[in-house]
Design goal:
This protein is α+β, with helices and mostly antiparallel strands and 247 residues long. The chain contains nine helices and 13 strands. It starts with a strand and ends with a strand.
């Protein structure tokens, strides 16, 4: 017995592959479950595990209330955020720091939140590991059916509002004012990432005009949405590591 989000839960499974069953205040009835398919080798293994624990009718009538989709990178967090741009023009942003060091960025609110965080610090890993996570709920869910979820994950596009970029200075003679702008941009870039740096330097909508001659910004060869699509398809087909969290 344990508690998640201050709710009583029962952990069921092995050390690595398990789910949490939500319990009512009396601890006698199951009211839901919280699960992480990342802990299983494939979607088939995940569903079969749930079916071995819960009645089939309960699973068929259950509704997904939140879906977390993720892309993992063996890249330091600070390096990753310097290469991620979010194309949404207006959205709330908050930051998470630990011991004076940036470890997470939360973008959006309500039923759709994008989180970029240092997973190596969160899970105390020895190697560099960062994650981009898309948290969907309510009207943003592609479906509320567990069994229908695979087809929606294959057919719909996720992370399309992201783009991966490489930023490099161009070998150009620059003025003192341009040099000052670049220094300010680099300072924000290293601390808060590309999205925040571009937003801060685009208050007058002149970012492209001011930086086109002094910065070379080029896209990743593979778009983040395609990276996710390949990973989730491999997981659904049982050919790779997992890439989604849901409950």
């Amino acid at each position: 017995m344990t508690r998640l989000d201050k709710k009583p839960t029962l952990r069921v499974g092995s050390e690595k592959m398990f789910i949490h069953l939500l319990l009512d205040p009396t601890h006698e009835m199951i009211t839901g479950l919280i699960s992480n398919p990342n802990r299983f080798k494939s979607w088939t293994d995940y569903v079969e595990f749930i079916q071995s624990i819960l009645p089939l009718t309960s699973i068929q009538t259950a509704k997904v209330t939140r879906l977390d989709l993720n892309i993992d990178f063996n890249t330091p967090f600070n390096q990753l955020i310097q290469q991620i741009n979010i194309k949404q023009k207006s959205t709330g942003t908050r930051y998470e720091d630990k011991k004076g060091e940036r470890t997470g960025i939360y973008i959006g609110k309500g039923s759709e939140i994008l989180v970029i965080y240092d997973k190596s610090k969160k899970d105390k890993l020895s190697s560099s590991h960062s994650r981009i996570e898309l948290r969907l709920a309510r009207k943003k869910l592609p479906t509320q059916s567990l069994y229908d979820l695979p087809q929606y994950l294959k057919s719909k596009s996720f992370f399309s509002h992201l783009e991966g970029v490489y930023v490099a200075p161009t070998p150009t003679l620059i003025s003192d004012s341009q040099k000052k702008k670049i220094q300010e941009f680099q300072s924000i870039l290293q601390r808060d990432g590309f999205f925040a740096a571009r937003k801060a330097m685009d208050q007058n909508r002149n970012f492209d005009r001011d930086f086109v001659q002094v910065l070379k910004i080029s896209p990743w060869p593979t778009h983040p949405s395609e990276i996710f699509k390949r990973g989730i398809q491999a997981f659904l087909e049982g050919n790779s590591d997992t890439t989604s969290d849901l409950h």
